[in-house]
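Justification of resources, computational component.

The compute hours requested in this renewal are based largely on the per-chain cost of generating structure records like the one below. Each record pairs the submitted sequence with a full structure-token output. That output is archived, and it is also reused by downstream analysis tasks.
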Amino acid sequence: MVRRYSWMLWGLAPVVGCGPQPAPSVRPDPVGSWAACYELRLGPWEPERSGFQVPRVIHLDSRNAGNGYKRAAPRLHAPAPYQRITFDARWRPFAMDSLRVIWSDGFGGLGVLLTPDGDSLIGRVRELHDVLGPVFPSAPVTAARVTCPDSLAS
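The structure output for this chain reads:
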């Protein structure tokens, strides 16, 4: 009996797949919509203040920085007594509805995860470390789009 109707499966399979197909969904380009300068406003640090000086204004550039990241500025200096160490900035879309900005050398640095909220972006800035241990400092952050200062313009 199965053999008798198997021709129907083979015969109808191409026909079923040839019907009208839904149009592919077009996702908006998050890089194009988020590439700009932003003024960062930090809330209180928890559980303690970070040694990093978070930049007041950041520039999210649309040019590639490698490994799926885009360029960002400015560079970030490590906290005392290591101020001569600097971290390059980079960013990328994260989960299609948010973005991640990172200043890191792979061992430490700062990371910011931001999500759109009206005309601004909101999220949290966190110290990044390559070791497990205590809860590292973090703070709420709001990023408002601003005109790029000459020092950050590309």
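The domain at 31-146 is CATH 2.40.128.120 (Lipocalin). The first strand starts at residue 37 and ends at 42.
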